[in-house]
Amino acid sequence: MNMDCEKCGSPISESFKFCRQCGATAVPAPSPILVTPEPATSRFNELGKRRRTDMRAFCASCQQEIPPKQQTCPSCGGGTPICRTFSFYIQGSQPEPYRVDFAVVGIQVVATCTCPAGTFGALCKHRIALLLGDVTTAVDPEAEDLALMSRLINETPVAGRLCDLIRAEKGLAAAQAQLKLAKKSLALAFTRG
Questions:
Q1: Are the beta carbons of 38 and 25 closer than 8 angstroms?
Q2: In this structure, are residues 16 and 10 in contact, taking their beta carbons and an 8 Å threshold?
Q3: CB 3.0–4.6 Å: which of 2, 79, 140, 152 could bond 11 by disulfide?
Q4: Angle at 69 between CA 110 and CA 140, to 5 degrees
């Protein structure tokens, strides 16, 4: 099945990630995805432990429920875009933990956080930490969920952008260290003449 390039309108094979005519990133046509949270009467279970938000995923083509941790639809086969959602609670500066949600549909990733930065649409440190596998501030993290989310996100453009961010941060740290040395050197030049 082919799709059309959003930039130039040329046909693009589903197996291609870029348009052969103009080089634009291939974006599959959106499919109807149904994701419904399990009803929860409380965020805490009977033991007082924080309840994970259990999201269910449904196949975009046949609407059948996808079992947890499965990446293809058992009813209609592979290649069907499936929405997988992951929820984590992060202990931030407020008494109530922040909720970080990731939804992965094919190569698209939607990530939200209830922290102040996240609610204003800014990139927050909580989402970045989870993308990097850092669960030091997570409340009862599910290692299997984090591993599956990482595998799915590594197949998306988000993985490349995360690498770009890491490289930029390392470059910034090196530049800041170099600036500090330059300031010290200038200060010494003033005192020694």
A1: no
A2: no
A3: 2
A4: 75
Helix (H) or strand (E) holding 186: helix 157-192
Q: What is the model's pTM?
A: 0.56
Residues 139, 142, 148, 150, Cα dihedral to 10°: 30
3-state secondary structure of 36: strand
What are the CA-CA distances from residue 31 to residues 67, 81, 87 (Å)? 19, 7, 22
Compute the CA torsion angle 16, 2, 151, 168 (nearest 10 deg). 50
- What is the CA 96 to chain-centroid distance, rounded? 22
DSSP assignment string, 45-112: -TTSPBPP--EEEEBTTT-PEEPTT--SBTTTBTT--BEEEEEEEE--SSSSPEEEEEEEETTEEEEE
Q: What is the pLDDT of residues 61-84, one digit of tens each?
A: 666 677 766 667 777 775 555 677
CB of 63 closer than 8 Å to CB of 56:
no
List pLDDT tens digits, range 117-144.
988 888 899 999 998 888 888 887 777 8
Residues forming beta bridges with residue 23, ordered by sequence position: none
Q: How many CB atoms lie within 10 A of CB 117?
A: 15
